[in-house]
Amino acid sequence: xxxxxxxxxxxxxxxxxxxxxxxxxxxxxxxxxxxxxxxxxxxxxxxxxxxxxxxxxxxxxxxxxxxxxxxxxxxxxxxxxxxxxxxxxxxxxxxxxxxxxxxxxxxxxxxxxxxxxxxxxxxxxxxxxxxxxxxxxxxxxxxxxxxxxxxxxxxxxxxxxxxxxxxxxxxxxxxxxxxxxxxxxxxxxxxxxxxxxxxxxxxxxxxxxxxxxxxxxxxxxxxxxxxxxxxxxxxxxxxxxxxxxxxxxxxxxxxxxxxxxxx
Length: 263
Prior knowledge:
two-stranded antiparallel sheet, 7-stranded mixed β-sheet, 8 helices
């Protein structure tokens, strides 16, 4: 989060201005056990801060501004280029909904060498496609990206529970609030050593702080900054005479290893 913020700040100090607003937020209690099954921090942030802020600055009809959306990053540092390091659990029947993605994984011998972007096809497509194109525009092509576009509006009650692994982070609360959101992840406990170390003592700096993992994380941070630049409609001007009145809003988030930002 801080690295993408640093890049944005450097641009601003160099004379960049933006047509759209960027807001960074951080919240916790994603996995806090409750009657709501967690995600308490983002729910509180939306209800107690974001909605009042939007209403104060843009009025009751802020939704007409068409927010670009929120990017939720949840575990994004585990890279593994070994064959069969990416687990596809047998209960993940929803993978049948992503034939191109599954075909790509098979052609790579199920290497855990990608960042996964999870989004709703009809509602988050612009944000997802911008993030995807900026990722592909960055160097280091060995770090790949795979898209999981869910036909969210046509998921039936019978198949809803099959998608649990795609709904396990704070993007869900933004979906419920009609704010576009994409979920970016390395797949957490479905990759390499995290099958054993996820939420256990071996999830530590000794195991996770490798050159490849840091470079993988670096590409993610660079892509975030590039996506923010694109969606905030950054332009160069004399900083002493520039104004910054945003007409659209977009959001990006990381919390406790996740980030939240709003454009």
